[in-house]
Amino acid sequence: MAHTFAELVVGGVLFAPFVTYLVAALVLIVVLRPLLHVVGFAKMFSHASVAELSLYVTILSLLVLLF
Amino acid sequence: MVAIVPEQPFTVANIPLSSWSFAIRVWLAMILALFVSFWLQLEAPASAAVTVGILAEPTRGQALDKAGFRLFGTIVGVTASIAITGLFSQARDLILAAFAVWIGICVFVANLLDGYRAYAAVLSGYTVAIIATQQIDTPQHVFESGMARGAAIAVGILSMAVVNTLMYTPDRHPRLMMQLAAFRRRVREYASAAFLGEPGNSTTFLTLLREIVALRPEIASMTLESSSGSVRSVAARSAAVGLVAELQAARILNSGPLDVDDMARDQARAAPERADDAGLPAQRLPELVAGQKRVRDVETEVSAWAARELLRRDDEVRQDLLALRSARWPLRAWRAPLYRSYRTAAGNGVRAALWLAIASIFYVWAGWPAASVSLSFVALITGLGATLPSPRGFTAITLIGTPIAAVLTGILEFIILNGADAFPVLAIAMAPFTVGAAVLMKSQNLLWSSLGRVNLLFIPILLAPSNPQTYNPQTFLFTSLFLVAAASLLLAAQTLIPPVSDDERRMRLLAEARSELQEPAHLNGESPEEATFQDASRIGQFLAAGGAQDSRALAEMLSCFDQSVMLRLCVAKLMPLTDGPLAPLADEARAAIVKRDTPSLRTIAHRLREMVPQKDSIEADAAACLVLTSKILDQCSGVNFSQEAT
């Protein structure tokens, strides 16, 4: 069965479902930040920024896949 | 002896490699933003390219911070556009009046903030110009236009963020750590002058104070750098606040004669010298404290207290720097409040509203067909200028920069591209212009750097890349003319009603410092260190308004600073005594502080010392603080008298 995506409607304007996922992934990353700091995420990688971007993409992909 | 030669950065064509990589990043991000906008068929792809031009900041954290504020400012601006259009629809003059008032409010708010917060405030102002004013004849399109702009900005932000991340844009915190450590070393050198018996140099003090305070917005922008960014930002902020407190303690030591006898002086001098780079070990403190056993009279005791205070501050800064290095929370998190001059901000806000009103009247009178575009440029230049020290200077630079940008865009559009419709051609053709402007922007010379920024901003605006590109010479000519007309008109308006002058700004800051000193010393829920930082930021603003040339006002400003810092410190030192048996004495001291009764302060200090003879107690500290306060108050009133006499 094909995966259906819920439309986001703000003031009569339709947004692509992808925007919802982008924002949700961003919110999740913001919530996870203190936890990432506690586990020393930034110290684990030579290029922490690339690692954080990859984490963001992973969360985004998981959201699209699961919800 | 070891000679230290500063490391020379690697250069290509006499331009540092970091500038080249920055410029190439900006170009790549701009091309990516345009590509995505074309692919998504957005209505305003040029806004995405302009967003990249605006977010061209040297470090990742700064770009992300500015991006966040740009998005926030746009949301506020779009909301205000809808509200203004809804309230005054079908009434052109009322819309223009409301728009001028809104710009005034935004400039007022921007003057109360700094860094990217100020930018967000002015952005909310000129977003109304871009959305509501340009759609003045078709109010039903305001919402759609706002959405189109918001989408383009989001694409621009994402492109910049991705390119910055993948291209290893440098982080701000390693350099900030080095800067703060260098400041600490310079503060210690400044303090050591006192131990060597050299007279204090207030120029060194002012330079250090200005440079430390100037770091404030950059410290705030570290938050978004990584998952540890917020912790690092708090540690760096605490270090900066601590450095200002340490600098003030060094100034106290430098200002008064030190009659510490030879032994104590040697020990005090040796302490900072022997300390290794990691800082002053706590075990050395007792050596200095032990030196106090030799001090006999009150003066020496006060000097020893001041030296102890300096060492304590130095140790606090060292701990904050360690916290910054290892990305952990500092022992106590200080805020770094900014001094806000409401009257100057209101003055600037009213002027900005008047400039807009003059421009609107001119455009209504001229009756040009696309005057709304030109008016939105006036708002844009007013807004961007409001975040800079000299708004009129920025307008003048824009007036010089826009014809250059127009010529360059003309060459790009009608000679190089000339009808091309392939995206790779656009990408390659834009490279020299974008990279050139971005390299220029990184120049040390303020004029070149401003011209670079103006070009980076206006070339995408004038080119207005779209899919398909129209290549209409008439549109290009009109847009260029409107842009130049907007800059000229604004310069004329700013000549008619000049912005708040530096003299006026200095006088207001001085008057505010003076009146604040007259009020009883109280701490509005902030620690004395935070309040000292706020006062230091006022001195920073004073110096930015050309305060260094006005020696008399500067002396008075510094005298106000010294007094208010000492009074606050006294109030804080008396606090622990309020609950104990010495409460009546503490109350008396507070009353004497309010009356600026220096003989009483000295008497109370004497009584405190008699009641608690221990040298390293809270009471002894409070007594030394009271004596020092009375001395500074006497010195400052002496200065005032001599000034009045002359």
Brief synopsis:
Chain A has 67 residues and is mainly alpha-helical. In chain A, 69% of the residues lie in helices and 9% in strands.
Tell me what you see in this structure.
- The complex is a heterodimer of chains A (67) and B (646).
- Chain A is mainly alpha-helical.
- Helices cover 69% and strands 9% of the residues of chain A.
- In chain A, strands 1-2 form a two-stranded antiparallel sheet.
- In chain A, strand 1 and strand 2 form a beta hairpin.
- Chain A starts with 7 loop residues before the first strand and ends with a helix.
- The model of chain A has no long low-confidence stretch (mean pLDDT 84).
- Helix content of chain B is 75%, strand content 1%.
- Chain B is mainly alpha-helical and 646 residues long.
- Chain B is built from 25 helices and two strands.
- Chain B starts with 10 loop residues before the first strand and ends with a helix.
- Classes of the chains: A mainly alpha (67), B mainly alpha (646).
- Chains A and B meet through helix 1, helix 2 and helix 3 of A and helix 6 of B.
Record keyword descriptors for this entry.
heterodimer, A: 67 residues, mainly alpha, two-stranded antiparallel ribbon, 69% helix, elongated, B: 646 residues, 25 helices, 75% helix
